[in-house]
């Protein structure tokens, strides 16, 4: 037998990322190996995750809001944050989702659009993992078109009173603070109600956060609703710098960036798992890795993995230098998630019956990626976003 190499060695990843970046990725991977990897199959089967315990550990590791600056956030590069997401999703998409919602949605909203008082109150706690945040945009009947939201914030003297409901909200049942988006009575030049963001402590009277149960995907993640019943907030709860949908959409773009890198971790883990299993599984007196069809499947998966990894690296470089566009992030999410999902599906077959158990990761990754394909912009929405950019025609219009 010839000497085997890892997918990253064969790709020559050390020439794509700096030594410092790869050392950081190694630190994150080791922490996950020591604290999470052996338990993730059980968390998935149980349909939960010890979010508070992990949040404190991840805060000590320094990954919560790591790409933000100040207020306890280290101000790491976009590429380093992407590599952290890659290692997190190599364990499970639910774990990356916990970190992504915390840092790129809730913390980013406060950091980018909030007041100084909001930043000082919440960001240090969230960076440390002692406070968990969530982000309320999607509603039970409103997903891809956030302009159709029904949650409403009405002025009452100096206060705001919010009513409405949000759905599919990662972290909400265990959150301490939520960033919620609502329409207001204020209108824009076209007569549409202006959307505003609000920072709401979860313990505020009138707030309920029911758990979403019976999920078939992303089970190692705590998902819930946000129900707002005459929730009264002071004027200081509003994010002062966010006016209109530009606020929440900018947060979604940040979170999608983490997905672009994250899904490469799921694909890599599926390949590594397949190599380990097929190298030791004996059939017809030889390891099944020696069969041509097995090698064909693994080689195909490696080629696909290489393409999305290099695409993620390129998008990270752009984000760290000239600045990345929403369309470029749409490209990364559209291609990356679909490709990673297909890699995990194809490789699962190499495990035979064992591949449907929680002992092996490819099927779990594939099922999780079914959710990732849909959230923070469906696959079809990203296709239309790129179609609009390339043709100049807006297919979203009636």
UniProtKB/TrEMBL annotation:
Q: Where is the Acyl-CoA dehydrogenase/oxidase N-terminal domain?
A: 20-129
Q: Which residues form the Acyl-CoA oxidase/dehydrogenase middle domain?
A: 134-231
Q: Which residues form the signal peptide?
A: none
* Lineage top rank: taxon: Bacteria
Entry keyword DNA repair:
no
Q: Which UniProt keywords apply?
A: FAD, Flavoprotein, Oxidoreductase, Transit peptide
Return the SUPFAM superfamilies for the record.
Answer: Acyl-CoA dehydrogenase C-terminal domain-like, Acyl-CoA dehydrogenase NM domain-like
Name the coenzymes or cofactors required. Answer: FAD
Q: Which Pfam families match?
A: Acyl-CoA_dh_1 (PF00441), Acyl-CoA_dh_M (PF02770), Acyl-CoA_dh_N (PF02771)
InterPro entries, per the entry: Acyl-CoA_Oxase/DH_mid-dom, Acyl-CoA_Oxase/DH_mid-dom_sf, AcylCo_DH-like_C, AcylCo_DH/oxidase_C, AcylCoA_DH/ox_N, AcylCoA_DH/ox_N_sf, AcylCoA_DH/oxidase_NM_dom_sf, Glutaryl-CoA_DH_mitochondrial
The reply to whether Oxidoreductase figures as a keyword in the UniProt entry is: yes
Where does the Acyl-CoA dehydrogenase/oxidase C-terminal domain start and stop, copy by copy?
243-390
UniProt family annotation: Belongs to the acyl-CoA dehydrogenase family.
The taxonomic lineage of its organism, from the top, reads: Bacteria, Bacillati, Actinomycetota, Actinomycetes, Micrococcales
**The protein's name:** Acyl-CoA dehydrogenase family protein
């Amino acid at each position: 037998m010839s000497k085997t190499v890892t997918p990253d060695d064969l790709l020559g990843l050390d020439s794509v990322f700096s030594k410092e970046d790869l050392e950081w990725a190694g630190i994150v991977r080791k922490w996950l190996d020591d604290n999470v990897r052996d338990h993730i199959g059980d968390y998935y089967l149980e349909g939960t995750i010890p979010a508070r315990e992990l949040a404190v550990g991840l805060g000590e590791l320094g990954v919560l809001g790591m790409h933000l600056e100040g207020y306890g956030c280290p101000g790491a590069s976009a590429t380093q944050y992407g590599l952290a997401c890659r290692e997190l999703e190599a364990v499970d998409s639910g774990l990356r989702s916990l970190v992504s919602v915390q840092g790129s949605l809730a913390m980013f909203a406060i950091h980018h659009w909030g007041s100084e008082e909001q930043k000082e109150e919440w960001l240090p706690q969230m960076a440390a993992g002692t406070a968990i945040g969530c982000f309320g945009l999607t509603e039970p009947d409103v997903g891809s078109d956030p302009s159709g939201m029904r949650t409403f914030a009405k002025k009452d003297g100096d206060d705001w009173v919010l009513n409405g409901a949000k759905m599919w909200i990662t972290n909400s049942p265990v959150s301490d603070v939520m960033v919620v988006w609502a329409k207001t009575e204020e209108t824009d030049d076209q007569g549409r109600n202006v959307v505003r963001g609000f920072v709401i402590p979860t313990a505020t009277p009138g707030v309920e956060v029911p758990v979403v149960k019976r999920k078939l995907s992303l089970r190692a993640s705590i998902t819930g609703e946000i129900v707002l019943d005459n929730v009264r907030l002071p004027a200081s709860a509003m994010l002062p710098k966010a006016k209109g949908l530009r606020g929440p959409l900018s947060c979604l773009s940040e979170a999608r960036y983490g997905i672009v890198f994250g899904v490469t971790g799921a694909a890599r883990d599926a390949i590594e798992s397949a190599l380990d299993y097929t190298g030791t599984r004996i059939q017809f007196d030889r390891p099944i890795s020696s069969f041509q069809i097995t090698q064909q499947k693994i080689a195909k998966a490696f080629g696909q993995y290489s393409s999305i990894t290099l695409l993620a690296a390129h998008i990270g470089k752009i984000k760290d230098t000239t600045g990345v566009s929403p369309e470029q992030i749409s490209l990364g999410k559209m291609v990356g998630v679909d490709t990673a999902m297909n890699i995990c599906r194809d490789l699962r077959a190499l495990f035979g019956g064992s591949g449907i158990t929680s002992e092996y990761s490819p099927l779990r990754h594939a099922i999780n990626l079914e959710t990732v394909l849909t959230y923070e912009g469906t696959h079809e929405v990203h296709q239309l976003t790129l179609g609009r950019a390339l043709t100049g025609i807006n297919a979203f219009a009636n």
